[in-house]
Write a structure and sequence with these properties.
The structure is a homodimer.
Chain A (H helix, E strand, L loop, with lengths): L1 E10 L2 E11 L2 E6 L1 H8 L17 E9 L2 E6 L17 H12 L4 H17 L2 E8 L15 H13 L2 E8 L2 E3 L2 E2 L12 H9 L9 E7 L7 H4 L3 H6 L3 E5 L3 H11 L3 H7 L7 E5 L5 H9 L3 E4 L1 H6 L7 H7 L2 E4 L9 H16 L7 H15 L16 E4 L13 H6 L6 E6 L2 E4 L3 H17 L1
Parallel strand pairs in A: 1-4, 5-6, 6-7, 7-10, 10-11, 11-12, 12-13, 13-14
Antiparallel strand pairs in A: 1-2, 2-3, 4-15, 8-9, 15-16, 16-17
Helix pairs in contact in A: 3-4, 3-16, 9-10, 10-12, 13-14
Chain lengths: ~450, ~450
């Protein structure tokens, strides 16, 4: 057993003080805020705050504000190598995609392991304790499977384990370059040829450690998965597995879908049994009112990726409307133009402010729920994302006296509207301390790995 | 004389390497990139990069990417105390303003000095070397002038000097709560009663040190300065002084102006001789095509404050259209919801991407020009914002191997699209080293000062 005394902590939907948290292995076994402790003991001694009941034992004090673990619900790890390098020309999402494909062409299981490990370490240092890796870079450059057809997936699982982050590997079906068009160029690395071959490969994927890794599935998009093949997902939806899909990120995708199928992408998914309470619609940017209704009725997750959606010029999605219809917001860093859960949280609200010219669409508490418990639930980790008895022991501590956070009140508004990834001082995942504030070492590792990718 | 060897530096509109910069006092006297050095000496020895000609003398090597000084063209220093504290309710710009007035009511020259000094120190640590302080908190709470009618202005000048940042104090005329309405409540602290009284007070303002501080002027807005009083600014415009004004930040201001005067705020300013090449239109968010044309023809600066404009739900201004019409972009952190020049630069581009669903409206070089030379020029410091002979010796160095910047290429795209304030490692202003990377001490000072304001 070990114990932590949290100076301030987000517990039961509010910031509480001097919270004693006890752990057994990877689980939280008790959570006792100072007020409860005083009530329990029946005495309120002036020195109580400095004398929790375990102070004499192995109690570690964490200064600052401790949050539950943050979930990154949409990641393409290899995009981290593109940061800063895709900003040189005018263009669109589609020209950016060409640059992204150039990196995808360079990786093999060994280099992808190294890049993903460094990227996941950046996530851990930013307070993410789980990642949903939307994985479609499966095969050799000419499309031939590796000897282990899951060599790339296994590299990602190993990278997550070695970086100390939990992972849900969302193995992604990709069959088509567009509506009715065959995969071409680097897309052959993504393409399994058929939904059946894909399913066979996925069934052979073995998480390296059970508790730290889950296997989920994804359809890349209605562009890349023909309508017939979408049916393959109905059994995963029925089983309650994590099922993800890129949805309506760009207006062109909607137009092409309507031209090919006569319905919107959301309608197409609904008609093929793809929508359910463990389905995540990633981006969900350009939706009709009926699309919003369909996602809401399915209680589907909407995985917004605001910093990427800014970067790619996707537009501002209707986050609040989705939530009010019954959908549940989660947050991902997607292309990793930025890895900063705090920026993602506030960006949801800021972007709605820009679109509406009014403030206060989302409370800080709602955005924290999206980034913690709801995000974890969408990845299949229903027992993570809260500082509560029986939950996985994830603790993310931020400095309350940095240039960003100082003077901001030290509550949930500080976390959502002031903090940055650089403020993370301590991260525990499943009871293990995986980060203790050395951001510089994380940067040096990324610098080394990405430098080698571009010069190889 | 002193000398710096810059590993990478933004010189002549591109990133150059191993740049030797020599200083005499506050001025740059020579700038020699490695390539030039080799050409001059006629030998390219393998160890050249480690042996600049001054290496044996007092040459300090600055690792990373060194930028010219960054200019913060729009600041209300006291708003820093609001960060994180105005996010609790739904509302609008106008309800936010009520919260802002609550802080304005609490300050006196002593507390304002302390708050501004800590806030300016945060700016310095973020790489800002000049600030344009849009200053309207002039008088005692009941509107009576202090014994020194410029007590508050002098507090700001002293705070800037002691924090090590150059300042242009933009003393602001405020006469009205709205079109035809008298100042009320805390607004009495802003109100000089007449343009004549204001001019008299401004003429008594004395910069504490000449080279580090300038006095400019501002009209708060067309809401707060009746049309007649706007005429008082024509002489400053004619003199080429820095003249600033809040312009069309909110749709309501435009509607009220049209109702009161039959013209847009921009047209009203143009008709009163307010627009010129040293006029800065702050925000300039909601403009008609004619407004854009008028600002462009005047070659006026457009001071965008993207992180504040997000926060207050102002909307997305037409930055590119203004630039193409002849206006010149500068950047300010305004309400200090965030103090991060890098985030302001990229936000201009990101917001245009969100509005247009296309990428590449602004190059990184253009955004750097806005944040450096153009910004300084708008504050009256035409001799700052470039690493060039004869310029003020401002050098801002960022780490290229942080979690944010690692692997991003180390050029201007890194600075604009990847870096954050936490990456600033070294700042020189006018030849003096004012920051050497200790961000923690900056945070502790803010924490102390703002804590005292809210508990007093």
């Amino acid at each position: 057993m070990s114990a932590y005394l949290l100076e301030h902590a987000w517990v039961d939907g509010r910031v509480q003080h001097d919270v004693l948290v006890e752990l057994e292995g990877s689980r939280i076994t008790s959570v006792t805020p100072d007020g409860d402790l005083m009530r329990l003991s029946g005495v309120a001694t002036p020195d109580k705050r400095m004398n929790p009941r375990s102070a004499g034992d192995s109690c570690t004090r964490l200064r600052g504000l401790t949050l539950p673990g943050l979930a990154n619900t949409h990641s393409h790890a290899f995009h981290r190598a593109l940061r800063g390098r895709t900003q040189t020309d005018r263009g669109t999402f589609w020209t950016w995609r060409e640059q992204m494909y150039a990196v995808a062409g360079r990786l093999d299981p060994e280099t992808y392991y190294a890049l993903a490990k460094a990227t996941y370490a950046e996530m851990v240092a930013a307070g993410y304790t789980s990642v949903g890796e939307f994985h479609y870079l499966h095969h050799q450059p000419d499309g031939t499977p590796y000897d282990d057809p899951n060599a790339m997936g296994h590299a990602l699982l190993a990278a997550a384990r070695d970086a100390g982050i939990r992972i849900t590997l969302l193995d992604t079906l990709y069959l088509s370059s567009g509506f009715g068009a065959a995969s071409e160029g680097v897309q052959r690395r993504f393409d399994d040829g058929s939904a059946e071959t894909w399913q066979e490969r996925v069934s052979a994927l073995s998480p390296l450690t059970g508790a730290d890794a889950l296997i989920g599935v994804a359809a890349h998009s209605v562009r890349a998965v023909p309508a017939d093949a979408l049916k393959a997902f109905a059994r995963y939806v029925a089983d309650g597995a994590a099922v993800h899909v890129h949805l309506s990120e760009q207006v062109k995708e909607n137009a092409d879908c309507v031209a090919a199928h006569g319905v919107t992408p959301t309608r197409l998914l609904a008609d093929h049994g793809f929508l359910g309470p463990m389905t995540s619609a990633v981006h969900a940017t350009h939706l009709t009112d009926e699309d919003v209704r369909l996602l809401g009725e399915a209680r589907a997750f909407a995985s917004f990726c605001p910093t990427t959606e800014r970067d790619l010029g996707d537009g501002i999605g209707r986050a609040r409307a989705l939530q009010e219809a019954g959908s549940v917001l989660t947050l991902g860093s997607d292309s990793h133009a930025i890895i900063d859960a705090f920026e993602e949280m506030r960006a949801v609200e800021m972007d709605e402010r820009l679109a509406s010219q009014a403030r206060g669409h989302w409370s800080a508490a709602e955005l924290l729920a999206a980034a913690t418990a709801d995000g974890h639930r969408s990845l299949g980790f229903a027992d993570a994302g809260a500082i509560a008895v029986g939950q996985r022991a994830d603790l993310v501590t931020i400095d309350l006296a940095s240039p960003r956070t100082a003077g901001t009140g030290g509550d949930e508004h500080t976390a959502v509207f002031a903090a940055g990834a650089a403020d993370v001082t301590h991260v525990m995942v499943d009871g293990k301390v995986v980060f203790e504030g050395d951001h510089a070492v994380v940067g040096r590792s990324l610098d080394d790995v990405i430098g080698r990718i571009w010069t190889s």
